[in-house]
Amino acid sequence: MKNSFKIAVVFILGIMLAGCKKEEKSPSYNKGDLTIFTDESFQSVTEALAEGYMINYPETRIKVATKKEDLGFLDLLNGKAKVVVMSRNLTPEEIKTYQERTDLKFLPAKFAADAVVFVVPKDSPKESISMEEIQAGLLSDKKEFIFDGTNSSNLNFVAEKLKKQPKDLQFSIIPGNQKIIEELSKYPEKIGVVGLNTFSRPYDKASEKLREMVKVLPVVEKGKQYTADFEGLRTMKYPFTRVLYFMANEGNFNIANGFMRFSCTHLGQKIVQKEGLQPYNLYRREVQMR
After folding, report:
1. Is the pLDDT of residue 205 over 50?
2. How far is Cα 25 from Cα 32, in angstroms, rounded to an integer?
3. For residues 132, 133, 138 and 141, what is the CA-based torsion angle, rounded to 10 degrees?
């Protein structure tokens, strides 16, 4: 009888210990590993937010991997990614597919206003560019505009703004936003199309060096000139302002959702501001972001 009691006690303790070990290994918002897929255009702000999160939660390890926007979204749908950064608006069909594949509601975590900007070499006589010029140039065989590649966020967003499909546009390619800026002087008749976050960090020496290489062209729309500065982004009057947001494929409040929530808090928004971008959640009550 005593032996039976001892066996029972050992068995119960074994179950309890196994349960404790399982609980210790379970995912959590404050420990574990996460890979975030982002288009290269948003790499800097995404890395800054990841560093901020790891400082606050030292047991987390976040890796930021660059991947073209459309390809990152496909990885999310196929369960190969937990979090991706997006800028373009999803189609109703894409939203439906996302909800069916992930069994989650479409709730984008908006965290910043960024922009697509048009740049020319510093010594270019060109001082501005109109919406009409952009539209005509992207339909011309001259391929005056240089993008960082197909499936990229910059191309997607400009095509969306012009109500065109990316495949319908004519353009040249230099892989990478930074490469476009560095090599643009070789093509004085061309116009580079890059993400603002590529060189938006106000006190960063690398960003400052890139800014010195090019001139950012204000965009003229309906006779008015708009620049991609804080005011232009805050009011969304700059025509190519875009809202950056996270999408997740995680049902529980683990590290992916923890990171997204952090990015939208006051601390995360301060990091966005230090990146030279417009924080989304510090002013969303003042303006309806599209």
Report:
1. yes
2. 9
3. 120
